[in-house]
Design brief:
The chain has 84 residues and is an alpha+beta fold. It has three helices and five strands; from the N terminus they run E-E-E-E-H-H-H-E. The strands form two sheets. A three-stranded antiparallel beta sheet has the order 4-1-5. Strands 2-3 form a two-stranded antiparallel ribbon. A hairpin with a 2-residue loop joins strand 2 and strand 3.
């Protein structure tokens, strides 16, 4: 596992809930490569692929839309790899 910190917290509004992501993000090695290379769409493709569930096409599209919003904010927050 690899961890990435961002310059600022990521805030997402999910209906009546506000979610704040301020802790370092953990990434497997395959996902870490996409973060290091600043390849958000490859990272989003991987996230949709590895999340559990047997989804039909509209459900996959909705999941991808939700994941994309979060991951694009993650990249906009300038993730930097944390070295122990």
């Amino acid at each position: 596992m690899t961890a990435f910190e961002t310059d600022k917290a990521i805030v997402m509004f999910d209906g009546p809930f506000t979610r704040v992501f301020a802790d370092p993000w953990a990434a497997c090695e395959r996902c870490a490569v996409h973060i290091r290379n600043r390849s958000p769409h490859l990272l989003i493709d991987r996230a949709v692929l590895v999340l559990p569930g047997n989804l039909n096409r509209p459900e996959r599209r909705a999941r991808r839309t939700a994941i994309k919003a979060l991951h694009m904010k993650f990249f906009a927050a300038q993730p930097q790899e944390v070295h122990p």
